[in-house]
Amino acid sequence: MNDKIMNSFEVYWQNVLERLPEITVGTTLLIVFILLAIFFRRLVVRRLKAKMTDVLLLNFIGRVVFLFFLVIGVVVFLNQVGLGQAASGLLAGAGVSALILGFAFKDIGENFLAGFFLAFSRPFSIGDIIEVDGLTGTVKAMSFRNSHIRTFDGRDIFIPNAMMIKNPLTNYTKDGLMRHDFELGIDYGEDVAHATEIIMQTLNKLDNIVQEGEDITPFVIISSFGSSTINLKVFFWINTYDFLGSVTVLKSTVMQTVINNLLKAKVSMPADITEFKLYDQQSTIPIDVTNK
């Protein structure tokens, strides 16, 4: 038994020694093709980076170039060491293997395929504010498996790309424009037109608000009639491409400026009026106590 094992090792080692030059040449060619793959991937990405701003598509093209040279290198290596039939079988069985692995790793394959479609459909880019499946945040990075968004409260969420394809996706900054609004109430005795004019004058003086365009200029409407106030709703737009600060801070600044100008103009903005009725134990006549 031991003699058979030793003879097998001797035959194997003798075959290795006989094919050592072929193995050396094949390994050298494989290393050359790997270096070529790295070189051409960097070259293509660098050339396209000057013309494209889509990071995900650039990474996808770079990986395709790298895998193209790597596959050629592996096939050349197998042919060089005398495994040409194995190389043909490897290429022929790639489709079957991909099918089997697709069923075995359905979720992973689904996310990779979704990342492939996202690379070309491009519903969002890095820096856009999106909402998908109730999650809202700024896109920070994208890969073929998931997309990284950062919510406004500082959470980092990695959303599988398949979720991006299956669920409705809202892009709030596709064209760089984003509308904000807030509501305030004025007294029923105030002149609504006068209060609206003060608000519009205030908005027109703010530099960070988009002022041009028929559909994106600031405007004010009466939203509802409250128990003690006429509620006005103020709408304004900002350009997220030009504005580098916090959108939330900007909205707060706009609200504060509008309120201050209304108070300077002595426009009354009362709080809700609450009425309490206190009944005297000796009498059924209610006593009204009004709290503003």
Unreliable sequence segments: none
The averaged pLDDT comes out at 76
Termini separation (Å)?
103 Å
Number of strand elements? 10
Helix-strand string: HHHHHHEEEEHEEHEEHEE
Give helix % range: 40-55%
Largest sheet: number of strands, sense, barrel closure: 5 strands, antiparallel
Radius of gyration (Å)? 34 Å
* Main β-sheet, spatial strand arrangement: 4-3-2-1-5
Main structural class: alpha+beta
Helix tally? 9
Range of strand content: 15-25%
What is the overall shape?
Answer: elongated
Can you give a write-up of this model?
The protein has 292 residues and is an alpha+beta fold. The chain has helices spanning 2-18, 20-49, 55-80, 84-92, 94-104, 106-121, 161-166, 192-204, 247-264, and strands spanning 129-132, 135-142, 146-150, 156-160, 169-171, 177-187, 219-225, 229-239, 274-279, 286-291. It has a five-stranded antiparallel beta sheet with strand order 4-3-2-1-5. Strand 9 and strand 10 form a beta hairpin. The chain is elongated. The mean pLDDT is 76.
Keywords:
alpha+beta; 292 residues; 9 helices; five-stranded antiparallel sheet; 50% helix
Secondary-structure map with pairings?
Elements: H1 2-18, H2 20-49, H3 55-80, H4 84-92, H5 94-104, H6 106-121, E1 129-132, E2 135-142, E3 146-150, E4 156-160, H7 161-166, E5 169-171, E6 177-187, H8 192-204, E7 219-225, E8 229-239, H9 247-264, E9 274-279, E10 286-291
Helix pairs in contact: 2-3, 3-4, 5-6, 8-9
